[in-house]
Input
Amino acid sequence: MEFASCSILRPQSFSTIFHDTSSHLYALPKNHLNLASPFSPAFPKNSTFPGKCLHFHRFTAFSSLPGAGDQNPSQELAVLLEVDGVLMDAYRLGNRPTFNVAFKKLGLDCANWTEPVYLDLLRKCAGDEEKMLIMYFNRIGWPSSLPTTEKESFIKNVLQKKKIAMDEFLMSNSLPLRPGLEEFIDDAYNEGIPVVILTSYSKSGDAISRSIIEKLGQERILKLKIVGDKEVEKSLYGQVVFGKVFSSGVDEELAKEAMKAVSAEKQRIAEEVASMLKLNVEIDTTSSESLQKIIAALRAGAENAGLPVSNCVLIAGSQSGVVGAQQVGMPCVVLRSSLTARAEFPSANAIMDGFGGADLTIPKLKNKKWL
Output
């Protein structure tokens, strides 16, 4: 569908609503197949590393106190990394240009987002891309050949083209990894700390996320564990949640009880999230289905690292990851990106601006206080 011109229509108003979800860990019955690892958090909320927690304009940085390195240096630790906003800040570099690519592909010659236009829309719509498009075309006019009843399908078409353009951008060689990421992975490897990258619930999809990981280079990839859709399904928790057949070594009655417990967990998540969506406001929304997928990925990540969830730390780039970590009792450090620069993460244990230097480093993770 092509639209060569835009006509001026009367502006329309709309509101922006965001939601938050949070809930508590459900543990399977004791003395049975225990998929729920011990979950007393390894980090106390809001400050988890030994040292001072410094707050600057809602950002959090940490400075170590003398002797911090002597606190529990041999404690086992694994690091789980999300893809979106953590491995690279694709939103900052590619979001506006890929919208313009979408406009061009649809023949919308009158549509072009300059930096000032884009930032204004971003601020007023709080990052909601559908609302950004509606506000923009309410300003400049919708395509003259577009019936009023087809505005919704038009917006969806633009967003679809934009996603295709973003996927191509993500796989291009021009998109760099976040500064300090490679050194962070190398430091973890040298310290014997497993690093697991979670691709299964990335918004970009498992395949594109793996292509992003390839930017790390083959030698560094060998130091990592990657948990995607297949790895989640093969994990013990994944086999139960997704109804896969158990190995012959697992008692049939035990398996049935575990399945019942997981079914109850699914129902509980759905009910609790539905309740939360009616009451709370936040920057991101996590449905029960996506939350279940995140939880499965986190547990599979811990399983691949060979440690309990409470010994793993999730480095998250989104609120949904924070919610999932809270569900399973996994400590979580948020790494801010351009998309989440002004977002609040009250459930996270710590908030950092990037890798290395005064921000997130392996020594700071390694020297945390365990409870």
User: Anything to note?
Assistant: Confidence is low (pLDDT under 50) at residues 7-74, 245-250, 276-286. The longest strand covers residues 52-56. The longest helix spans residues 252-279.
